[in-house]
Amino acid sequence: xxxxxxxxxxxxxxxxxxxxxxxxxxxxxxxxxxxxxxxxxxxxxxxxxxxxxxxxxxxxxxxxxxxxxxxxxxxxxxxxxxxxxxxxxxxxxxxxxxxxxxxxxxxxxxxxxxxxxx
Length: 118
What we know:
Blueprint: H1 3-6, H2 8-36, H3 44-58, H4 64-77, H5 83-117
Helix pairs in contact: 2-3, 2-4, 2-5, 4-5
Keywords: Coiled coil
Protein name: Calmin-like protein
Organism: Tigriopus californicus
């Protein structure tokens, strides 16, 4: 048995955890954008708190290394798996990457608006 076969479940758990963390991060960014762009009048302190939260979430916006790592691990993990399982996992990862790529322009526009509002 190879290293990957012997440790499949552990590596799969790490992969799933990183996949889930990226998904949660994107959801948090979307929530931060909705709070900033809400039709609410913020006090200076409230807006500063929202702005700081948004900027903290967006500091690692591009996350190319995470996407690359997820793709590489998925290729390794699915090398000897059934075709259906491979397709399912690849489509989940493609959906995650597509969602991230669609999120980037929205975040960039929001960053500009936040700076203008501040």
